[in-house]
Amino acid sequence: MKRYFFDLVGRQRSEYDYRGRVFSDSENAQQLAELMALDLGIEPEGEWSGWSIAVRNAQGQQFFSVPVRPDCLAA
User: 1-59: per-residue pLDDT in tens?
Assistant: First the structure.
């Protein structure tokens, strides 16, 4: 089991995940990141458009990043 951290990364600032979540493999972590990006992409104001979900380990190493796309591009 490994702890994954899901940081929201924007152009001007970032929102860091200090708690993280434990998964048995990176595939489950990637699925959660994709779900989070889809959820943020349907915000009515589009405030998360252009952001991404950066998935990292406790040492800060980034495994992958998932972009947040506006609702019209998500489908």
Answer: 999 999 999 999 999 999 999 999 999 999 999 999 999 998 877 788 899 999 999 99
Distance separating alpha carbons of residues 48 and 35, to the nearest angstrom: 14
| Residue 67 tokens, joined | 């972009």
Buried b (16+ CB within 10 A) or exposed e, 9-30: beeeeeeebeebeebeeeeebb
DSSP for 10-61, please give it: -SS-EE--SS-EEESSHHHHHHHHHHHHHHHHT-TT-TTTT-EEEEE-TT--
